[in-house]
C-alpha cells in the first residue's frame, strides 16, 4: 500500500492540481483561439486575398493536376508532387494569435505583481517603537 499512498499524496499536491487545471483551461483556450481564427479572422483575410478556404491552397511541383481541384483530390493524382501551404498559413495565424493572447495574459499578471511588490516595498513610515526610540535617543543627546 505504500505505492498507492505515495501516489495519492503526489496527485493531491497543489502543483499537480494547478498543472491539471492549466492543461484543461489551455485546451479550452486553444479551441477558442481556433474558432477566432477560422470564424472571424480567416474570412477577413480571405476577402482580401480572394480565397475562402486556405486549406486548399497548394502549388503543383511535379505531375499533371487539373486546375481547381481540391487538395485531397490533387493528392490522389498518381506521381503528383504537391506543395500544400494553405494549412500552414492557417496554423501559423492560429499560433500567432495564441502567442499574442498568452503574452497579453502574462503582461497583465506581471503588471499586477509589480503593483503588489511596490505596495509592499513602500514603507508606511516609522513604527511607534521607532518613533519612541528616536525620541529617547534625542533626549539622551541633550
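Q: What amino acid sequence fits the structure above?
A:
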Amino acid at each position: 500500500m505504500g505505492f498507492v499512498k505515495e501516489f495519492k499524496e503526489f496527485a493531491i499536491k497543489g502543483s499537480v492540481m494547478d498543472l491539471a487545471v492549466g492543461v484543461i483551461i489551455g485546451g479550452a483556450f486553444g479551441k477558442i483561439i481556433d474558432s477566432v481564427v477560422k470564424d472571424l479572422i480567416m474570412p477577413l483575410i480571405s476577402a482580401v486575398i480572394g480565397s475562402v478556404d486556405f486549406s486548399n491552397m497548394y502549388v503543383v511541383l511535379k505531375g499533371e493536376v487539373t486546375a481547381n481541384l481540391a487538395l485531397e483530390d490533387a493528392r490522389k493524382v498518381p506521381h503528383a508532387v504537391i506543395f500544400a501551404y494553405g494549412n500552414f498559413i492557417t496554423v501559423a495565424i492560429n499560433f500567432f494569435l495564441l502567442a499574442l493572447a498568452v503574452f497579453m495574459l502574462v503582461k497583465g499578471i506581471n503588471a499586477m505583481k509589480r503593483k503588489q511588490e511596490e505596495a509592499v516595498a513602500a514603507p508606511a513610515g516609522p513604527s511607534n517603537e521607532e518613533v519612541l526610540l528616536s525620541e529617547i535617543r534625542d533626549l539622551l543627546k541633550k
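Q: And what stands out in the fold?
A: The helical segments are 2-12, 14-49, 71-75, 86-121, 128-141.
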